[in-house]
Amino acid sequence: MKEFNKKTEDAEISCPLDFERILRLPQKELKAVLAEDLRGRGYEVKVKGGFLYAPGELPVLLIAHLDTVHHYPVKHICYSRDGKIVMSPEGIGGDDRAGVYMILKIIEQACCHVLFCEDEEAGGQGAQKFTRSRIAPEINYMVEMDRRGANDAVFYGCDNPDFTEFVCGFGFQEAFGSFSDISVVAPHLGVAAVNISAGYYNEHRTHEHINLEHVENNITRILRMVQTPSRWFEYIPQRQRNLFGDYDFEPMSMRSFDYGGDGERLASQRESLMRLPELAYLVINGQCMESCARYYIDRKGNVYDYLPELDAAVLTEHAAAFQASGEPLAFAAGGTERIHVISLEEAMELLQAV
User: Fold this and answer.
1) Which of 58, 101, 156, 225 has the highest Cβ tally under 10 A?
2) Per-residue pLDDT tens for 29-66?
3) Are 74 and 199 within 8 A, CB to CB?
4) pLDDT tens, residue by residue, 328-344
5) At how many degrees (to 10) do helices 94-106 and 27-40 cross?
6) How many domains does the chain have?
7) What is the pTM of this model?
8) The domain spanning residue 215 has which CATH number?
């Protein structure tokens, strides 16, 4: 187990916008401080309701969001003895303060366009407000830094193989995700976009941590990417028949797959889930959905999408279930089913293997 040294708010140097200050500031204050920081770098800053935008010289738009899911501001910051891992008992908020920090480091050497969005965790509200503005930068592509891990490149609904090849040429590996700000901004502008790992782990939990080596490594790689001349990459939408892309499968049980050792692992991941009742409805990424036949919730209210093709369920991020009255839907243990629960990445691999 790593040992951690603790730094409190009182130890913070208040002047520079360093990583610790980015982690500590509430969203509104961070937005104001970022505006001043960008102006100090020579940017012409546009501060709007829901977002902050600054046009640059290089034809690349860098994106991060300012909010976190944690209820309390960061007061204590703890480092591992080797200084590589940072955590907080309040929840460090690497999702997505790490992305904010990465952008500020990148634009020290590359004058890219910058977009900081508010309230991504509440369904991408800031990104949606950006799409309702008249701002339309002339860019070749977009890079968001709002992904867990070290090497992921998530393209969501953008199906441009040339852009995927370009991004992965810098050592990133294509991965799959559910939603981020570029899910809204990219189709609006018609420009290809990617979400790159920002070095945080266990997001949305108080034991979230940030690996500073992974952060710095990806700053270097993204800087190399944006400084590499490229053409314009079009946003090419995927044709989707379900959550996972353009697939057309006959239903089959999880038992149809030959897992070897994995079958035993998956069997241990059955969970008690309650199917949503007929009059319930869902809010996913800020959008109301009344067709809920495939959805379940667990004891904590987390929403799952049941995939009949796999006889399994996948956690649906940024989703909440409600009664017809508008009250949060309560879990009823008496009406549950034991269902396999797998990750989005596992589901994609299984669907592609069929």
Assistant:
1) 101
2) 999 999 999 999 999 999 999 999 999 999 999 999 99
3) no
4) 888 987 778 999 999 88
5) 0
6) 2
7) 0.68
8) 3.40.630.10
